[in-house]
Amino acid sequence: MSLRANPFDLAGKVALITGSTMGIGLGVARVLAQAGAHVVISSRKPEDCARVAAELTNDGLSAEGRACHIGRMEDIAAISAHLKERRGGLDILVNNAVLSPWRSIDDTDETLFMKAMEVNMRGNWYLSVEATKLMKPRGGGSIVNISSVAALHPDKMLALYSTFKTAMIGMSRSFALEYGEFGIRVNTILPGLIDTKLAKAFEGEEMTKILEGTPLRRIGRPEEIGFAVLYLSSAAGAFTTGASLVIDGGASIASH
């Protein structure tokens, strides 16, 4: 078996990353674009998508902005049609967009529950279904679901978030089983605390405690999640499907 000159090369590939105007999603988009992919920057606000796509383009990368609220079925249908018409299909989908309400279980009313489910479960599910339709004619593709270590070790006040992040693991495994014969691989990444807007909420003693409980003594960087997505989306990960990869600096093994 001969190896490619660069098994991480994504030249000619089209990648859609949801929730990619900031944080982990943006880090993933930049890494995939640097590997040669044309990246579709997606979030709810068109102006944010256009701004980030322009930033990447100005850096010599291939990108476009396309708004999509994954909680709306009509938006999912629209972005799927756009990818088919303008890009001829899709090679990589990264389900990163999330709704993460800070709420106790007792204070989680039905309206909030349904809103979170529409984004975190229904949206990811049906966008993935559309992705498989776009990937089949191209001989396969890669879907990467961004879950969280909260799927394994839930936190109080984040019950909805933890519940749906756990569901993403089951979704990945089921899709991997059903679509493997079409060359479509589906995997899950479970990040720990990453240097994003969310991490800014932890300050002083709380952050010190987190770092002391992390073997690598630091929080992660968005691009480090991007490198994992690159592996799972490239020829380097061609025999990897149905897997769940924890990327948390070792925090989960140290604290549980």
Question: Could you write a compact summary of the structure shown?
Answer:
The protein has 256 residues and is an alpha/beta fold. It is built from eight helices and seven strands, in the order E-H-E-H-E-H-E-H-E-H-E-H-H-E-H.
What does this molecule look like?
- The structure is a single chain.
- The chain has 256 residues and is an alpha/beta fold.
- The protein has a single domain, classed as 3-Layer(aba) Sandwich (Rossmann fold).
- The chain is 44% helix and 14% strand.
- The protein has a 7-stranded parallel sheet with strand order 3-2-1-4-5-6-7, with helices on both faces.
- Helix 5 (159-179) links the parallel strand 5 and strand 6 (184-191).
- Helix 3 (73-87) packs parallel to helix 4.
- The radius of gyration is 18 Å and the shape is globular.
- The chain starts with 13 loop residues before the first strand and ends with a helix.
- The mean pLDDT is 95.
SSE order and pairing:
Elements: E1 14-18, H1 23-34, E2 38-42, H2 46-58, E3 63-65, H3 73-87, E4 92-95, H4 110-135, E5 141-146, H5 159-179, E6 184-191, H6 204-212, H7 222-233, E7 244-247, H8 251-255
Parallel strand pairs: 1-2, 1-4, 2-3, 4-5, 5-6, 6-7
Helix pairs in contact: 1-7, 3-4, 4-5
